[in-house]
């Protein structure tokens, strides 16, 4: 596990359901219906599409979005996985293409067990949301590969579930993929480990790191 570091997606990965997509469908239904298929079909960049959808939502919806996030469930084995990594001294970095306030609301006290969180920040001073991202680049609003590259001399382990994780997964030597991400990686013939919950990942890494 020398220099290993975990880069983990949030929506549909840490959460059992897609909270960010769910929020966009709820608060920007028309935009989401128009743009979401283009994103999955990779006909529009995440950078453009996610920004368009978020910036179509009135700032007054901010408290409702926090409320919307409160009830979302975390996938099983996550808390145990964080504790496992802590005992192994392996950092856990959360990289989300979604909104920071949603991530922090869902995680609650667990946020303190996470080494770093990268996500999209919302500015709410205008009539509509304004989007800020420290790592906006190329096709992504949160360029996960750029985040990974900001941790040099490490062995990245990527965990994800969908299109926002594709570039990160292609760049990481070890990838845990489920759902759409697994399909995309099949197309790219990039090897990955299939997973369902964090117990699977912990079991695999225990063996990989010769701990069992
Ligand atoms: Mg996801």
UniProtKB/TrEMBL annotation:
Q: Which EC number(s) are documented for this chain?
A: 3.1.3.3
Q: Which domain of life is it from?
A: Bacteria
Gene Ontology BP, a term: L-serine biosynthetic process
GO CC annotations? cytoplasm
**Top EC class of this enzyme:** hydrolase
Alphabetically list the UniProt keywords. Amino-acid biosynthesis, Hydrolase, Magnesium, Metal-binding, Serine biosynthesis
- Annotated metabolic or biological route of this protein: Amino-acid biosynthesis; L-serine biosynthesis; L-serine from 3-phospho-D-glycerate: step 3/3
List, in alphabetical order, the Gene Ontology terms for molecular function in this entry: L-phosphoserine phosphatase activity; magnesium ion binding
Per its Swiss-Prot or TrEMBL entry, what cofactor is needed? Mg(2+)
The protein's annotated catalytic reaction(s) are: O-phospho-L-serine + H2O = L-serine + phosphate; O-phospho-D-serine + H2O = D-serine + phosphate
Q: Which family does it belong to?
A: Belongs to the HAD-like hydrolase superfamily. SerB family.
* The name this protein goes by in its record: phosphoserine phosphatase
- Species name for this entry? Planktothrix tepida PCC 9214
């Amino acid at each position: 596990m020398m220099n290993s570091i975990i880069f983990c997606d949030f929506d549909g990965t840490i959460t059992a359901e897609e909270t960010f997509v769910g929020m966009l469908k709820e608060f920007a239904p028309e935009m989401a219906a128009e743009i979401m298929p283009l994103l999955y079909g990779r006909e529009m960049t995440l950078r453009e599409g996610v920004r368009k959808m978020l910036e179509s939502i009135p700032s007054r919806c901010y408290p409702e979005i926090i409320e919307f996030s409160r009830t979302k469930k975390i996938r099983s084995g996550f808390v145990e996985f964080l504790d496992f990594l802590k005992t192994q001294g392996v950092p856990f970095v959360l990289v989300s293409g979604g909104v920071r306030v949603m991530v922090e609301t869902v995680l609650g006290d667990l946020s303190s067990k996470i080494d770093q969180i990268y996500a999209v920040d919302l500015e709410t001073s205008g009539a509509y949301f304004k989007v800020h991202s420290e790592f906006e680049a190329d096709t992504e609003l949160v360029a996960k590969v750029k985040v990974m590259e900001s941790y040099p001399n490490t062995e990245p382990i990527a965990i994800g579930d969908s299109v926002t994780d594709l570039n990160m997964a292609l760049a990481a030597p070890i990838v845990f993929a489920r759902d759409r991400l697994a399909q995309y990686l099949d197309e790219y013939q990039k090897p990955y480990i299939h997973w369902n919950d964090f117990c699977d990942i912990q079991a695999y890494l225990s063996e990989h790191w010769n701990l069992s």
